[in-house]
Amino acid sequence: MTINHSQIGVVGAGTMGAGIAQVSVQAGFETVVYDVSQEFIDKGLGRIRGFIQRSRERGKLDREEEERILARLSGSLKLEDLSGACLVIEAAPEKIELKREIFQKLDFVCDPESLLATNTSSLSVTAIAAATKRPERVLGTHFFNPPPLMALVEVIQGEQTDPVNIQKAVDIVRRLGKTPVRTKDTPGFIVNRIARPFYNEALRILEEGDATVETIDRIMKDAGGFRMGPFELMDLIGIDINFTATESLYQAFFHDPRFRPSPIQHRMFLAGQLGRKTGRGFYNYGSK
C-alpha cells in the first residue's frame, strides 16, 4: 500500500464531516467521505456541491475551478477506500464506544503511516487511541462549526501520540488553510473548557429567572462585544452537541459543580428541540 500525501479521508458525512471535507477539497486535497448509508453520503456531498456552486455564482471562482474542486470529491461506503490517505478524520457522533469501534477498523485497513484523527470536542483521545494497535498515530483535530468559516483547529496529543505525528498533523492543518493550536488531552481541551462558563452561567441566570434569553444575548453582544449571544450560539452549534460536551466535562472532572449540565438544556435535548437544525431551540426558526 502506498500512502497518498494529497488525500484526506473523512468518516461521517454529517454537518461536521461535510464541513471538514469541504475545507479539504477546497485546499486541494483529494477527499473521500465515508458513511454507513448512501443517503447520508449523498446529502453531505450535496451540501458541499451546493456551497461550491453558490461560490461560483457569486463570482468567487469560475466554472473550471468549480469543476476541478468537485472532481477531487468522492463518497464511499467502504472504509478501505480511505486506506491510503495521509490523514483520516473521524467526525462521527460523540459516543465513545462508536468512535473506538471506528478507530479499531481504521487501524486495520489504513496504511501504517496514515494519521488517524478524531474530531471529538470533549472525549478522551487517549481512550479512543487505546482501541488501536498503533496509538502513537492517533490524535485529535477538533474543528469548530462551521468548519469552512472557523479558522481555529485544536490539535490534541493523546498519552501515546508520537510528537512527530502531532507535527505532521499541524503541517496538514496549515495546508488546509487553518490555524492549528496544540493542546494536551485534557477534558474539553482548551476552547470547550473555557467556553463552559459562557453557556452554563447564561443557563443558570435563565433558570433563576433573572433575565430572558433575548436579554442575556443582547447584553453579551452589546456590552461584551460577542458576535453572538450564548443562546444564539447554542442554537447554531446544536443543543445536543452542546449538552453532550457539558455532560462529558462534568463527568471527566468528577462532577465538579462548575460543569453541572442545565436541566433546561437537558429537557430541550430530550424533546428534540436542538436549535437551528430542527427549527426550534431557544429561538424559533420555523419548521425544518
Feature tags:
288 residues, Rossmann fold, N-(1-d-carboxylethyl)-l-norvaline Dehydrogenase, domain 2, 2 domains, 8-stranded mixed beta sheet, 16% strand, globular
Description:
Helix content is 45%, strand content 16%. Strand 7, helix 6 and strand 8 form a beta-alpha-beta unit. The longest helix has 20 residues, at 38-57. It is built from 11 helices and 8 strands. With 288 residues, it is of the alpha/beta class.
Chart the SSEs and their pairings.
Blueprint (H helix, E strand, L loop, with lengths): L3 E8 L3 H12 L3 E5 L3 H20 L5 H9 L1 E4 L8 E6 L5 H14 L5 E4 L6 H5 L8 E6 L8 E6 L5 H13 L3 E6 L6 H17 L5 H10 L7 H8 L1 H14 L10 H9 L17
Parallel strand pairs: 1-2, 1-4, 2-3, 4-5, 5-6, 7-8
Antiparallel strand pairs: 6-7
Helix pairs in contact: 1-2, 2-3, 9-10
Secondary structure category = alpha/beta
Rg over CA atoms, rounded to whole Å, is: 19 Å
How large is the count of helical segments?
Answer: 11
Biggest beta sheet summary: 8 strands, mixed
Taken in chain order, the helices and strands follow as EHEHHEEHEHEEHEHHHHH
Portion in beta strands: 15-25%
CATH superfamily of the largest domain: NAD(P)-binding Rossmann-like Domain
Tell me the name of the CATH class of the largest domain. Alpha Beta
Q: Spatial order of the strands in the main sheet?
A: 3-2-1-4-5-6-7-8
Q: Unreliable stretches, pLDDT < 50, 5 or more residues?
A: none
Please state the overall shape, judged from the principal axes of the Cα atoms: globular
Instruction: Quickly give the CATH architecture of the largest domain.
Output: 3-Layer(aba) Sandwich
Number of strands: 8
Number of domains: 2
Fraction of helical residues: 40-55%
The mean pLDDT is: 95
Would you give the CATH topology of the largest domain? Rossmann fold
Q: Gap between N and C termini, in Å?
A: 44 Å
